[in-house]
Predict the structure.
Amino acid sequence: KDLIIARKDTPLSDIIVTAYPSVYATEKISDVLSLIENYSEESIPVLSRDNKILGVVTASDVVEVVDDEMGDDYAKLGGLGEEEDLNEPVKESVRKRLPWLILLLFLGMLVSSVVSAYETVVARLTLIMAFQSMILDMSGNVGTQSLAVTIRVLMDENLQSSAKGKLLRKEMETGLLNGLILGIIAFAGVGFYIVLAKHYPLSQAFLVSGCIGASLVLAMFISSMVGTVVPMFFKKIGVDPAVASGPLITTITDLVGVVTYYSLAWMMLDRFTAL
């Protein structure tokens, strides 16, 4: 195009581009995407190691590959081994979903066995069972949020260790602050609910709600750390961090929430009985 519209007295050296971006055939698709984005080019030549042109990668090629990768990551975040297609057989869908479900089943059994270890606490203070799901849901939500943020950050191949440490601190601080705010709200709200709906004495009601509030703070703080550390660990050992999927993180944070909640309930039980 430049050659066609050039004037006859324009030197050829003014038209020739000597620093045109290129990639080698062995480079990652993410590097190609970065070049196309930075140089606003519609295509990038692909070179061999001896700098001979092997072909060309267009922007549409890159978008197609990135779309496939995003679909694969989305499937992993949903606890699927591979991305599914609407028209594929039921047996194929079962094959892709079943391995993760088996793993999560055993992790769920672990969570249930931990709950059964506190059956004495539950037997003496059955009211705490009513608020277990709230603790588990909130810790799972926080862990999944941290997981999503961490996976997005880890997409940067040039991420330094200092940046990972900064991310971990930020997520833990965020989890702690959110936990404190929600813990205070739960302390007040649950306390008044137990007094008004269950007709417990004020001291006993707010002892239970204090346990719930403290559990929220600890569970959300630890879950934010887990949701950040687990994908970082997977990345460190060379496994796609998307494998640290939402269902897996949720099950782990359920375990964190159960241990935190019932341990605090067990510690306050003697005090509750005394009141």
